[in-house]
Design brief:
Length: 496
């Protein structure tokens, strides 16, 4: 086989076609990907662990299957990245988001994403950067430093799946993993101008031990980050499906590629909110998102602006998220302590100050306080669900602000105020985490560029387990308002 085509910025769907037609081989593709990463990653810091030797071995196996005319998986030979958080591949480093104490920590476990990607024929080539414990909407940590945005390397990629989004936007990978407990797929997708899909809770199994139920507070999902909607549908088809190890896992029809083959939203009712009624949002973001709404109308849908009806202010909501995420974090530390590693005492400086603050705050809460938080969460669920009982989709901006500048101390955070209103710099500028309270599917789709050529994301929220609706609407938007040419900005960036 000989390399007959230019592989730069081809989608996974296109690469699979080339492989199956024997226009390229898996070995050629992996070598091409390795070269891209070696050239482009140093200036971004998107991938922090490179598994090139393993990838080369898997590429040779993939090529042998083609030669034997064996049955090929739906992702056969495609290079994929996985996130460095609670994301495992046997024999690979896992640092839980750049915790210095784990810089040599080897995992012998599989996360569902890695397990199912490899079962589908995908080749995992490395791990991508994340903030410590995923606990912020930016991508930075004390071990590896920030991941830079390929649209402007002075800016942050967003988090927590920031390395994945940056690698995909920069053309190094067609698919990379995100995990999402507060927007960690959608936030970096918005800032990096790629497509990020958080599926309905339970659609992709989430395996956690010793607490099999830990992914419910708030709802945590694994999902794909891609440059095209077709690739997201392809990845979701491979990743979704029942698993007995996850008590929240559901049985589903998981051929999402077929479901978006003839997308149609004629006569759909779409609700729109510029801010959920509570978030201060930069005007330029609202303007771009509202301009994008006309594409849904052009496709035959009705778009109506409405009041979501949330009675809490944005500071109360971000505090709620911080409290809800803490049981899982506290459990992690308790398990580590049982195994002889007291991270909070022996490696206290590995964790940001705000992380310690919320751990301490949660540890003093009573059971009744936790129930009050769940009641508050229920009210928000009811607000969102009431809308989706009447409308097919709810659309909002993904984020309230444009990408922030990177810091050089491992502690990049979001803005402290927007439009003169004080906000939580950890996640108060993210219109994403409310959907982790509810478990609905949601995607961030590139809506357009700012005057400074930075991406702006639109959040598309669907009914529970109607993930195909989100994909269908996304596909129509991509067809009517394609964003693929925006990656020329990334492709032509300086590599120093």
């Amino acid at each position: 086989m000989s390399l007959l085509v230019n592989l730069k910025y081809l989608s996974a769907t296109e690469l699979i076609s080339l492989i199956k037609n024997k226009d390229i081989s898996p070995v050629e593709l992996i070598e091409h990907t390795i070269k891209l990463i070696e050239e482009r990653n140093p200036s971004l810091n998107a991938l922090i662990y490179l598994g090139f030797d393993d990838a080369r071995k898997e590429a040779k196996k993939a090529e042998q299957l083609i030669m034997k005319k064996d049955v090929l998986g739906p992702l056969h030979g495609v290079p994929v990245g996985i996130k460095d958080l609670f994301d495992f591949k046997p024999g690979w480093i896992t640092t839980f988001g750049g915790v210095r104490a784990f810089k040599k920590n080897i995992s012998n476990n599989y996360c569902v994403f890695a397990e199912r990607i490899e079962k589908s024929g995908g080749i995992i080539i490395g791990k991508t950067n994340s903030p410590v414990m995923g606990f912020r909407g930016t991508c930075d940590n004390y071990l590896f430093g920030p991941t830079r945005n390929p649209f402007n390397t002075n800016k942050n990629s967003g988090g927590s799946s920031g390395g994945s989004a940056a690698a995909v936007a920069d053309g190094m990978l067609p698919i990379a993993e995100g995990t999402d407990a507060g927007g960690s797929i959608r936030i970096p997708s918005a800032w990096c101008g790629v497509y990020g899909l958080k599926p309905s809770f339970g659609l992709i199994p989430y395996i956690s031990r010793p607490n099999a139920f830990s992914a419910g507070t708030p709802f945590v999902s694994e999902g794909p980050i891609t440059r095209t909607v077709d690739d997201a549908a392809l990845a979701l088809s491979a990743l979704s499906g029942y698993d007995t190890r996850d008590p929240n896992s559901i049985r589903c029809k998981n051929n999402f590629v077929d479901r978006i083959s003839n997308p149609n939203i004629k006569n759909w009712k779409i609700a729109y909110s510029p801010n959920f009624g509570v978030f201060p949002v930069e005007k330029e973001i609202i303007d771009v998102v509202e301009k994008g709404l006309k594409y849904f109308e052009d496709a035959g849908a009705t778009v109506e602006k409405l009041n979501v009806g949330i009675k809490y202010n944005q500071n109360e909501l971000s505090d709620l998220w911080c409290r809800l995420i803490m049981p899982g974090c506290l459990s992690f530390h308790n398990n580590m302590k049982k195994n002889g590693l007291d991270l909070l005492e022996e490696h206290k400086d590995d964790f940001p100050q705000e992380y310690h603050y919320w751990l301490n705050k949660y540890s003093k809460m009573k059971v009744v306080d936790h129930y009050k938080d769940q009641e508050m969460r229920t009210e928000i669920y009811d607000n969102i669900q009431t809308i989706l009982d009447e409308y097919n989709l709810l659309i909002t901006p993904t984020l309230a602000c444009m990408p922030v500048n990177n810091k050089n101390n491992g502690n990049t955070v979001g803005p402290t105020e927007i439009n003169g209103e004080i906000i939580d710099p950890l996640i108060g500028w993210c219109l994403t985490y409310l959907i982790n309270f509810t478990g609905h599917p949601a995607a961030s789709i590139p809506a357009g560029l700012s005057k400074d050529n930075l991406p702006i994301g639109m959040q598309i929220i669907g009914r529970r387990f109607e993930d195909s609706d989100v994909l269908i609407a996304s596909k129509i938007f991509e067809t009517l308002n394609p964003w693929k040419d925006t990656y020329k900005i990334c492709e032509n960036r300086k590599l120093n």
